[in-house]
Batch of 3 targets.
Target 1
Amino acid sequence: MLDLTYEAPKPKIISGATGDWELVIGMEVHAQVSTKAKLFSGASTQFGAEPNSNVAFVDAGMPGMLPVINEGCVALAVKTGLGLKAEINLRSAFDRKNYFYPDLPQGYQISQLYHPIVGEGEVLVEMGEGVARKVRIERIHLEQDAGKSIHDMDPNMSFVDLNRTGVALMEIVSRPDIRGPEEAAAYIAKLRQILRYLGTCDGNMQNGNLRADVNVSVCKPGQYEKYMETQDFSHLGTRCEIKNMNSMRFIQAAIDHEAKRQIAILEDGGSIDQETRLYDADKNETRSMRSKEEAHDYRYFPDPDLLPLEIEQGWVDDIEASLPELPDAKKARFIGDFGLSDYDASVLTAEVEAADFFEKAAEGRDGKLAANWIINELYGRLKKDEKELVDSPVSPAQIGQIIDLIKSDAISGKIAKDVFEICYTTGREPEEIVETEGMKQVTDTGAIEAAVDEVIAANPGQVEKAKANPKLAGWFVGQVMKATGGKANPKAVNQLVSAKLGL
């Protein structure tokens, strides 16, 4: 993949009453850093703990409490930047973003506006074989998460859980390079995949560990090209931000609805107000939350309790040397080394656990056959039982055993499926199953020939039909396989039937 040339996908076109419109989308993804402690305190980041049990004094905004930077959070932010081919800034700084909200006890959020730790990078988002969108990353900065307000526990009161307060987030800000709802979902999926490979964020969207703010605007065809030439945002139309999206399906639905809402306003002679909106999945609509704030509205200023963050190039180089093989490189290797199709390689590299499972099963074996067994047989069975790969009762070594048994002609492909089913339900080893259950394939040509002769002798009428129409020879093959309990070598049966019938 790394050596292939990709064509950019066409932008999403929406037909309006006055003509065509194009979508322009930028994403601000908040990824929770995979550390056990928070950004500026030693409080736990464990999910699901009792409300307000993972809160240090500094997280609660107690007077006189000073933040202390968590080096692990910095290291994982740098690692993420390197994984996204981004510039690492050896000098960065933290700012206070001032606003009042009940779940923000300090009255401000410590973030990075002017001097982020990571600069420009990129993500290659595949939209099909040979088609991909390169999405530019503008910056990645570290910041604190806020707490959570709870409104459904009492009809008259709201509650606040500060467990998330101070948890380290990486805000990954893209350029407005995404051109449709499907691309937006694919971008999130690709970013999540890279973060999981790097081990810097677990990507759990259900728990809120990965969520996105989606900036949507519409413009007339040709305007985006003018923006790319000039980098003048006025060509792109006024954007609205849809907050806190944590579902691929809802992201696509929200973008589609918001684009049509904006087009209807513009075609009616109105103008778009820059604002923050929320998506209501039940009603499939976005609604206004507040006018979109600018940086000056938050009264940003350098945090007086934190010195500028300075890191050394040697430290960055050590992190870079420890980077794992990333999805694009792994996919290219699977295609090159194992001869996999683009589709199969994509499926097997979608999650790092799947790629590791495949490599263990395919080591020293037929990679295409291993991919087929994992994608079709194992994944199919797991889906039926609503299980994930990590819960698979069949190990990579057991898949490897089945492949070895097939390649050595010990069992046929049909028998292999029966062996797989027994292995899946009992955990027994495939080699032991074949031996003890008498499932070994009959390869003795004498025994197979006797069965063929018997079937031919018993069906003279069918013999004449097969000689007139050779395609009917398959009937004899089926009868022989039935007579041998499916244990005869299919290749040998086909050869002997053809020879005996003179075909």
Target 2
Amino acid sequence: METLRVSGTSRPNAIAGAIAALLRTQGEVEIQSIGPTAVNQAVKALAIARGYLTGDQLDLYTQPEFVKLDVQAEERTAVRFLVKAIPAPKSPS
């Protein structure tokens, strides 16, 4: 599974495109963010990615969790989003 690392300066549209591409090809992706600004950018990217997937009749499902990461010999707490592609719900006719 691919891991995308999102920072506070990451562009949500670019991350959303990467999320959508990985969900189309691999069906899942992991996103890691450290800090409130980075988590905000990741959540915006997830919302944008949902729109990118509608033409493929796909949606996404995510489970956020806290994880400990070693960054430059220092333990940091990150938010990890495990994201999976699911079929888009049928719209009522």
Target 3
Amino acid sequence: MAKTLQLNFSTAAGKNVMLTVDEPRADLTESDVETAMQDIIASGVFEVEGAPLATSKGARIVERNVTELVLS
């Protein structure tokens, strides 16, 4: 089963942005994720069309099952 952590932000210009992390740690807590998202915003590393990330909107872990039917 593949897991992805989706981090949702808004930019200073009001655009929605999603950052994803493949295979996040199993022991992540809400506090861990909130702290990480605030650190990402404070770092100013990410911009969309010149606007930095400004607020965190939420986070979730998505699980999906993939069944290979034909392998080449």
